[in-house]
Amino acid sequence: MAGRIIRSVKEDMHPCVRLTALYTIKQFSKNLKPEFQDQYRDQVLPALTKAMDDFNYPRVQVQAYSALFEFTSNCTPSILNPYLKEIVTKLLKELRGETLKVLSAVAYSSQDQFAEYYSIVMPYLKVIMMTAKKELDHNLLANSVDCITMVWMAVGKEKIRDDTDMVVKMLISLQRSELEANDPMRCQLLQAWARLGKCLGKEFKPYMSVSIPRLLRSAKIGSYVLIPENPDNVDESDGSIRALILGERKIWIKTKVLEEKVAACKGLYLLADELKEGLSVWIEEVAQTLVPFLNFQLNEEIRRVAASAMPVLLKSSKEAKQKGNLELSDESPFEKLCSDVLPALVKALSKESLPEIAAIILDSLEECMKMSGPVLDEDQTDLFLKKIMNVLNSRSKVGDIDVIKQTLQEEQKVYDKAVDCLATFIRIQKSSFSPFLGKLLPCIQLMWEKDKIAKERRTGLRIFCDVAKQFPEEAFRQYNICLLFLFEACKDENPEVLEVAVQAIGIFAEFGAFYALKAVIDHPKALQIEYVMAHDAAVSALGKFLQFHREKLNAAQFLKTWLRHLPLENNLNEAKVAHHQLCSLVEVSDVELLGPKKKNLHKIVTVYAEILWAGKKLATEETVSQMIKQLELYRRRSILSTWRSFMLSMENHLRRKLESKLSS
């Protein structure tokens, strides 16, 4: 179908057919990206570049530009490169509003490959910019500035040095003039400063005193809400005013004013992300401006930008503090920012209705927690937990026929982020979290119930593991309930649930909970591919029981079972723990591990050989080094004939690996 539509762009087709085909290509480029670009680039780009030359039918030509804009906006440099010279050459012949937008997209998508054409393109753009300024054509001026700054983003600061001064002077001149509310240069001016900062990086510092106050002023701009005396007579046809329903109220928004506010917020975020600690003196004011926008209900893009900016600002403040760029008082700017940002994010999370933005808030909240440490008070902690548990216990089920795929994907992202954020929260807020365990554990237990899907059961177990690691004594007080759930989970048919269940029992090892593991280890399906991760986790957990409660066990018997299942080869994290423990026991010549007359040494050396043969996957460098030293010592102390006999009994690949390691 796509091939037939692309062929319809040919000159011998009726103009109406060609217009329809070009419009369809435009929609495909927009809605089927990037697969459409990847699959049809060699058909689409030649067709579009040819249609750009159709001066007999200007409408076809304009539609070709529009389709090219959508197609190139979602291209990789490798797709564009073979056609870049032809496209740039043709666009330079017809530079105006529409084609300037196309050139912007082409430059940005081609990235550093556009550097070859910079010296050719820039003179044209500067002439258009200055002519538009002189003739007060601010639509063309905005398009030319947009194109120049997009080209700059593509080619980098080394290429633009000779042109920066001229453009900056023009921006400052425009900034000092009184631009009308609907002037397109108001937004473009803000975008230009942000892009210039992104391009120059730390070299943008001389322009901060000019650009950032303007961005802050536009971000704080008010008067974007219109409440007319006669709502029935409001004219929305020109797009300058847009109706918005808030609860039972209907209000009207001045779109251009709100667009300026959005552009300013994006610009502040972009500069903060690029300049980092270089933003130092402006960090506090930027934060004071953006933090309230976490709850800005009139525009979701502003909430999205504000949420994304919080960890960036916190990191900038922390780095500025470390480098001595900030003046310190009783409470450092970084600490004050933490005490402002974290509660604001929690409050925003409790109010956010859009899953996409909720996921961003959770991601930012987790990053901020890692930097800030515990700052939430009791009420804020309670609010956070209520929202998190609400997310974890109220997911839409896959079988709900009214829930579309996109909603499920967004909910799944929020769900996963909530789990990660809660784990970080439990670790960071450890000192003040204990009183809330009584509320959290019953919610976790609800997630273990059989009517929950496997992922929810696994998540409940994972959260319990996080709690047990940080609060082992408190968790153990619940053991009468928890262990029943954990042992029941050991019978779960889902291998992922089974794996986390045995990890949770492993945590209980410090307090003597050693049942059920042998059943998992000796399960008939234990070494099948679906269950090997759970098997390895169970073997590692058994080692932890031996480490902490050896005196209560038949240590020789359990060590023999444990050693028989080594090395672990699938669950790499558990493998490194178990193999380090084995090495430590050998180091102290553990009698029960070595067995009567050290008869288990043969098995231990074979395990070592298998670990060494696997490279660095199954043990840390420290453990591997310790193993080699132990093997060298054992070889020196052994009778030569005994050592040779033992080596010959090993499989060839293991023997060669052992000989190689010992000889080196």
TrEMBL record:
BP terms from Gene Ontology: protein import into nucleus
Keywords: Cytoplasm, Protein transport, Repeat, Transport
Primary site of residence: cytoplasm
Cellular localization per UniProt: Cytoplasm
InterPro entries: ARM-like (IPR011989), ARM-type_fold (IPR016024), Importin_beta (IPR040122)
GO cellular component terms, semicolon-separated: cytoplasm
Protein name as catalogued: TOG domain-containing protein
